[in-house]
Amino acid sequence: MLVNSVNLAEIMQGSIRLFKFAGIQVYVHWSFWLLILWIISSAIQQGEVFLGIIEQVAFVFSLFLCVTFHEFGHALMARRFGIDTKDINLLPIGGIARLEKMPEKPIQEFLVAIAGPLVNVVIAIILFIGLYYSVGIERIYTIIQRTTKDSNEAFFGSSFLITLFEANIILVIFNLIPAFPMDGGRILRSLLSAIFGYKKGTQAASIIGQLISLVFIGVGLFYGELTLSIIGAFILMGARSEAKQVNQKEFTVTDIPIAAFLPSTFTSIYENERVGSAYEVIENGKEESYLVVNSQNEPVGITQKGKLLNLIELGQSFTHVQDIMQKTWEKLRPNDSIQYAIDLMKTSDLDIHPVFNENEFIGVVKQSEIENFLNTSKKANGPDNSH
């Protein structure tokens, strides 16, 4: 599932870091381990032997590995359109790729949304080919019939892989249900947006998604399938939240790309400078944050005036700037909106941000310049033309 990075942030609290791949951090939510405990507990109550319990747990981990690949499909496709992924979180009900922003061009949203299910299609094909050449089509069909009739039957070797094959097919089908903001719902929204526009497309997809979510909740409660009801509630909240955001969004001056502010003059500090001499350079500057560059004038960090002053007051004016600078930050791109830059500066507590075109540094956007521009626009056009 895809969400904007500002959505569901509180739900993601308490996640445990697993690994980092392609620059994207993967987390597992603490509630995932409750699922593992529930599986173990249920297996023990059913009199399952130790090996059977291990098999069931191994299957869950294998399935969620496939889910992780699914989410990377979304994330890596989004990267092709200049959209970074904040992180990927694994929950008991599935995975969530938190994009920094959602693609608004229909074709981009379509490709990003469908990339996840296509990964599961590829996994299913690989599993099927491997099984076909190892056990044959008749054996595959026999095992599928058996596992369908008795889902509690222990599975070994090829049975394990066939069950994983079936699970990936189910993931594809389930994710393509047009319940916005699930993958199928986003595909539907992209198609509707191409015909009716982004706002109307979102409204229609949201209504359909909410209706389907209510069906999920009702069916889940009626048949005692709690997981389905939880998924339904999750979809309901997501559909309402995103529809509300889009309904409130109108084109304003804050939608102007930050490229309008480039090139911009700015003061930088060299990384090998001492704190004392660096402070003398920026002492009379208006900004609180300053770019740190290397000998080739390439950005390597950001530091803040207050931090330098505190070190001077502590008698540490000979400390090198590179030892106290912030070495990582989120990249801004020329086509990012003013509003996006404002939101980023608020969350990062920085009042300047370097801008990159691909990997090329092209300038700095300042909070003070944005505020001056917005104030000027407000006076000229009235208070309703800006956020």
Please provide a written account of the structure:
- This protein is α/β, with parallel strands linked by helices.
- It contains twelve helices and ten strands.
- It has helices at residues 32-45, 50-79, 106-134, 137-149, 158-175, 183-196, 198-222, 226-248, 275-282, 305-313, 338-348, 367-381; strands at 2-4, 16-21, 24-28, 85-91, 94-99, 268-270, 289-293, 299-304, 352-357, 360-366.
- A five-stranded mixed sheet has the order 1-5-4-3-2, with helices on one face. Strands 6-7-8 form a three-stranded mixed sheet. The chain has a two-stranded antiparallel sheet with strand order 9-10.
- A hairpin with a 2-residue loop joins strand 4 and strand 5.
- Helix 4 crosses helix 5 (158-175) and helix 9 (275-282) crosses helix 10.
- The chain is elongated, with a radius of gyration of 26 Å.
- The relative contact order is 0.08.
- The model is unreliable at 148-156 and 382-387 (pLDDT under 50).
